[in-house]
């Protein structure tokens, strides 16, 4: 491990529902920050026509082609080194219980295709949407897509996944949050926001939590000695403001 291992965690671009401005900010920050590890935190495809309970409505009738193409373009441009599946990608696995073999085979083919594309773009690690197997760690920093909901999701997951004195970073809830964990050894938990356009997500428009969504991602570093620092990078008003130059001081 180098003296500082820099990372970015970015999630929830949702395929063809991605916010071009948020993606542009992520790409510009990445160019400046030059991370060693880029973690795609899940939900980089929306697969809304596969969601549970969808019927013969507008969403159910949608082709997946534009969504898949947009998700792949994100991987082409950002080239993550780690890919954590989210609950939207997991819809492909959920369809393996479908009663029609042609649907099961089609979804398995998409799964194989997007995972192969992620690896082609540089993802050395691809993890499933699984509360135990879907955890990626860089020293004292744990990263997941997200397995809890509601106003306390960041605290609940931080207490569950963050090691003694460490941190947890998650996506899924689309809100921006930084929480100091009140547990033995302390620690922090971060909700990374999202990279999507909430106005395009009609299926979420009736949820109160949608009003808390914010555009952003998390950046940070881990030292060779196992210490860490992480922070939110997000939109403030009509601007994105960030710091990318790191300095260390040893008294």
CATH superfamily: Metallo-dependent phosphatases
What is Rg? Answer: 18 Å
Number of strands: 12
N-to-C order of helices and strands? EHEHEHHEEEHEEEEEE
Distance between the termini: 23 Å
Task: Describe the overall structure.
With 251 residues, this protein is of the alpha/beta class. The protein has a single domain, classed as Purple Acid Phosphatase, chain A, domain 2. Helices cover 25% and strands 23% of the residues. The chain is built from five helices and twelve strands. It has helices spanning 20-33, 65-78, 90-94, 101-120, 153-161, and strands at residues 4-10, 37-40, 82-84, 125-127, 136-138, 141-144, 167-170, 176-180, 188-192, 216-223, 228-236, 239-241. The strands form two sheets. The protein has a seven-stranded mixed sheet with strand order 4-3-2-1-10-11-12, covered by helices on one side. Helix 5 (153-161) links the parallel strand 6 (141-144) and strand 7 (167-170). It is globular, with a radius of gyration of 18 Å. The two termini are 23 Å apart. The mean pLDDT is 92.
